[in-house]
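Researcher: Sequence recovery benchmark, item below. Answer with residues only.
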């Protein structure tokens, strides 16, 4: 993967687009601004500059998408960030809900040589502690094949594949409710009018209510025994 000499702000925008689009779909600029906690004006201006650099394309009234060049840079940033998550979790025993935020502070100062040494030291992990795929040195990875927990039918038991939330408070909320990769969840009830889901989690003696907006962050796969 070719090294890119870009600002931290540029890398954050490109990474956010990759996280929101799964490297494939158009992302609304308003959604991008919300993810990065910036104004729509700031996000539009950055998209204009990234378009001039050939990193994104803009479709009026729809949003923006990564170009091949932009996707390459985004995958490089995602790779660094998720490798640091693995190191912080496996070797420094940092709390799961803090991993994303701390790894973000390290990713921009990580040279290519350090990235590859870190990958070798960790044994070439395929996923981060949140269950999300780690691109290899060429930007390749196996995408998640699951669906959001918010789309699971009542009565189904599913296994958590990944959590793609990034906000520390959201991650902490899900961590405290045991909604972690590898855990099984049964959807007991879905309240009407976009109400919360009632979930039964493995290792827990009581049911948990989870709003649909939070359930969208949890990627799951159906239990093959059903």
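Model:
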């Amino acid at each position: 993967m070719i090294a890119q000499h870009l600002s931290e702000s540029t890398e954050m925008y490109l990474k956010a687009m990759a996280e929101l689009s799964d490297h494939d779909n158009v992302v609304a600029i308003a959604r991008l601004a919300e993810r990065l906690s910036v104004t729509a004006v700031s996000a539009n201006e950055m998209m204009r500059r990234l378009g001039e650099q050939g990193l994104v394309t803009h479709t009026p009234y729809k949003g923006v998408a990564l170009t091949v060049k932009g996707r390459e840079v985004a995958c490089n940033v995602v790779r660094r960030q998720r490798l640091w998550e693995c190191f912080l979790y496996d070797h420094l025993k940092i709390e799961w809900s803090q991993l994303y935020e701390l790894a973000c502070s390290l990713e921009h100062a990580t040279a290519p040589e350090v990235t590859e040494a870190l990958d070798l030291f960790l044994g070439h992990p395929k996923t981060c502690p949140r269950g999300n795929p780690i691109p290899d040195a060429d930007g390749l990875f196996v995408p998640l094949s699951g669906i959001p927990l918010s789309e699971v039918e009542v009565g189904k038991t599913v296994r958590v594949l990944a959590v793609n939330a990034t906000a520390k408070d959201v991650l902490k909320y899900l961590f405290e409710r045991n909604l972690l990769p590898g855990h099984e969840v049964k959807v007991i009830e879905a309240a009407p009018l976009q109400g919360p889901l009632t979930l039964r989690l493995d290792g827990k003696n009581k049911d948990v209510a989870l709003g649909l907006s939070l359930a969208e962050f949890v990627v799951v796969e159906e239990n093959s025994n059903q």
